[in-house]
Design a protein that fits this description.
CATH superfamily: Ribokinase
Oligomer: single chain
Distance between the termini: 23 Å
CATH topology: UDP-N-acetylmuramoyl-L-alanine:D-glutamate ligase
Number of strands: 14
Shape: globular
Order of helices and strands: EEHEHEHEHEEEHEHEHHEHHEEEHH
Length: 309
Amino acid sequence: MKITGIGNAIVDVICKVEDQFLKKNNLTKSNMKLIDESEFKKLLGNLKIEETISGGSIANSIVGLSQLGNKVGFIGKVSDDDLGQKYEQGLRKENVQYFYNKKKEILPTGTCLILITPDSERTMCTFLGTAGKINKTDIDIEAVKNSEIIFLEGYLWDEGEPKDAFNETIKYSNKTAMSLSDKFCVDRHKKSFLELVQNKLDIVFANEQEILELIDAKSFEEVISFGKKLNKTLVVTRSDKGSVAINQNEVIESESKKNLKIVDLTGAGDLFAAGFLHGYINEKSIKESLDKGTEMASKIIQKIGARLD
């Protein structure tokens, strides 16, 4: 197995809304808010569903890697309910090996309401359901040992037992990559994330906001300096400024693609990570890997959702 992802198994429910809808429901644009099941149903009540997908940040990356021809797997907790069955089917359809035996759980399968405003920004309301209850007994250790890289998401750190699952995974992993996921996520778990980045991870993905938040930096020069001291691979996406990889002492840049018809920014970071890891695992240069990430992100933001056809 080239890469196995471990993340929140979430069914994405994509809807288009006006900015007023966010204001009315006290939602912060472009961020992720954790909600309960009743709030999820209330928000969804007045909306038209555009698309439903087997999502979650890492699952999006893993499907992207599969579409690029890599042998990949995924571990994520669902319940043996209608959405859980759809989730598994959705991954298998994309040639992703699903290393999880679902059973009936107390909580239902997790769902994420993705609200797309006219400016193409996406705001997420996530009901984690049973996805947030993943524990170390849910991790297929053989799958971890047999993978060249394990790819984790910061979102998974959000509740108690997942932290044990995280640490158990890292213990048996050959090489570990992680996405910092979200600025609020970083803010909530800054000390833990910093310890992971400095001591336990081999490859770190972050956007500019997330990495600035993590190290309390005021400028990108501070990020470069931090990255050089890390002695690992730090990959930072900078929106229209392109992307940067700091690989030990070397700084490599890739420009963003211009004149794109941006429809939806959902999955841009997820597909960027897929492109980069595709290059990395297939022994391309860091520059080629960055360029592949840029290419994948550019394609996904020109369509609704986080799946390339």
